[in-house]
Amino acid sequence: MKHILIWGIFTAILAIIMLSFVSANFQNPAHFLKVQNKTILTDKQDLISNSNFLLSESTNNINVIWPEAGYYYTTDFMDLFITTNINSVCDYSFNGGEFYKMDDTGKVNHTQRLLMLKDNMDSNAYIVNFKCTDISNNELTASNYFWINVTNLDKYFLRNDLGSWTYGGSDLSWSGNENGILEFYEGEYEQEQTNLYDSLILDIFDSENSTRNILKNILNSPDHNISIRIIEGRRVYVSEEEGFKEMFWNSENKLIAHAIFAYGNSTPVVIDYPMEVIIPYLQKYPGTLIEFCSPNWTKEDNNCQITDKKLISYSNDCEIDGKIPSDNGTYTYCNYCSQNIQGPLYTNWSICSSNGMQTRVKYYVDTNYTNCCTLTELSSDCGIKDSKYNNITEDSSCNSFVLTLNTPNKELYNISSLSLKINSSIKLNKLDYIDYSQKNSKWTNLCKNCYGYDKIIRFSDGLHNLSIRANSTEGQFLFANVSFFIDTNFPKISTTEPKNKEFTNGSDFFIKYSEDNLKEITLVYGSDTLTKEDCPSGRNKNCSFNVDLGEYEGKIISYNFKINDIANNIRVSKNTSILVDTTSPIISKFNYSINGKYVTINITINETNFKVISFIDLNDPKSKMKSLCSNLKNSGCLTKSLFKSGDYNLKIQVLDKAGNSAEKLISFKV
């Protein structure tokens, strides 16, 4: 657990010096979970079902907490974590090997760390089997599976021992886009030869723009005494406390941070940074920090004026000047906020007056009110102006029977647990409901001797037609009805094309998916997008896209598909790299000759990504494409073919790997 303790100390310090630049509470992005680095791999997720835990018939059971099944992890180590209901001794077996006792076991929590894991993204999953024996000598088993992806670790780290320092492991600790920081990697080295060194942590921050602002905050932090060292001609910033030392420098858009811990008999001691570790990383990430600030013009959030316009102006957090943006000093129209009216809502009925009457208020709320009013400061955004949303006071006889269904009040939900809120003006003998959209539906009791109902009910996906029935103590009945649709299922993506590193000319983008309530599919390629709303809904459906890739000719770009359903459930395919070739092959030379029943064809072409030369007889409706040449010699194809007697009208086609083609037509008689 040394790694976790050190990381906690370092993170706390780093959070202080970066407070004005990076939020201390990162929101978990869609694809990563901090520390564990969990990434959904949709095309492998369903390989094994129900493998998170295995229950025994006894009162004890094994629950596999980590790793979660069916995911890949950007790391080269894995912390196994299982729990049992009863104190047990647990063993583990990795990938079919022998069983070994877990490092921390004997109670209800059991842990084991696996080190130096290899990348298995192109092969079968790693399988971990668990075997636990409780105090009654009952034996239980469980299993789990996962993948390891070290592609980026090899890119960022020297994953080997450096001098007397032993490499421990590394992982992707965070990913997203928080104030320009895209990814945060962490690695660990340890030294067992001396009691003075505890551990060394290496952090790499990959930023969207420049890391100079981060370093500026570090240098200006009142909590750090920063000095400068010149190591191999490079400026490195050093922050040192008792038993703890940090070193920072930048390389292009990366901030490199080292932290080392040293103690002697639990007392912090003066330490020097191990050059055998820092020099290899200085060489891997060269760069100096002569000038840590460059013009960074930021648009100011000016208030709207009476003219419903606001001034465009910029500020610069650097002391040096630069060319100010051209629209500085101009005006733009205010960004009015749209209303989000909710209601009608009702207050509770008042206590009956002496004349036997009670009152309540019907009202509406605008959930965007606070943000809009603060943003624009316009009277039109600081209240609901439409008179149809004015508050209305309603009165009723205390003996009158009024049933109000407050929620559900929408037509579409992407959650299954909904609030069912019902108010009655009098005490009810019984309140129940029925869902007519369900097979064999029947009335279900909500409450008895009550004034209403306000609890969460879970509904299945699909259409629901509810009828609420209220029965007063005097035998009166009132009904309220509501219909809504629930869709909590995310779209599933089976296949996308082109495949990774394949050639394309833009005509063969394809996705196979399953979604019963499809809204749209968006193809994101390069810096462009194309959205289609006419792709079919259902299981194992296909949708094709044809886009113009002319501006990306000869480049490597990436693409992905994003599927939205009507409830705004979104699934995004993984990014895939493709090679763009939109240029057709050029036939620079073509001739043929006939000798009896033999036809000799000689073709010379200009094409870097050549695939095949083939032909088809247009006179024969049953004819199929036949290959002439699948390889070229000196850019040429010389071939002799035997033909039967008859008239021929051949189409000669030259095809490249991206599907571009060139053709020649010849006619002859044999």
Features:
670 residues, mainly beta, eight-stranded antiparallel β-sheet, six-stranded mixed β-sheet
Write up this protein.
By secondary structure, the chain is mainly β. Among the domains are: 2-22 and 179-284, no CATH class; 38-150, Immunoglobulin-like, CATH 2.60.40.10; 492-580, Sandwich (Immunoglobulin-like); 586-669, Immunoglobulins (Immunoglobulin-like, Sandwich). It contains five helices and 47 strands. The strands form eleven sheets. Strands 11, 12, 13, 14, 15, 16, 17 and 18 form an eight-stranded antiparallel beta sheet that branches. Strands 1-4-10-9-6-7 form a six-stranded mixed beta sheet, with no helix packed on it. Strands 26, 27, 28, 29, 30 and 31 form a six-stranded mixed beta sheet that branches. The protein is extended and about 110 Å long. The model is unreliable at 1-58, 289-294 and 318-322 (pLDDT under 50).
SSE layout and pairings?
Elements: H1 2-17, E1 38-40, E2 53-55, E3 61-66, E4 71-73, E5 78-84, E6 88-94, E7 99-101, E8 109-114, E9 126-134, E10 139-148, H2 151-156, E11 166-178, E12 181-190, E13 197-207, H3 212-220, E14 226-231, E15 234-241, E16 244-251, E17 254-264, E18 267-268, H4 275-284, E19 297-299, E20 309-311, E21 314-316, E22 331-333, E23 341-346, E24 357-366, H5 369-376, E25 392-397, E26 403-407, E27 412-413, E28 417-435, E29 444-458, E30 462-472, E31 477-486, E32 492-497, E33 503-504, E34 509-515, E35 518-525, E36 528-532, E37 538-545, E38 556-565, E39 570-572, E40 576-580, E41 586-595, E42 598-606, E43 610-617, E44 626-629, E45 636-642, E46 647-656, E47 661-669
Parallel strand pairs: 4-10, 27-31, 33-40
Antiparallel strand pairs: 1-4, 2-3, 3-5, 5-8, 6-7, 6-9, 9-10, 11-12, 12-13, 13-17, 14-15, 15-16, 16-17, 17-18, 19-21, 20-22, 23-24, 24-25, 26-28, 28-29, 28-30, 30-31, 32-34, 34-37, 35-36, 35-38, 38-39, 38-40, 41-42, 42-45, 43-44, 43-46, 46-47
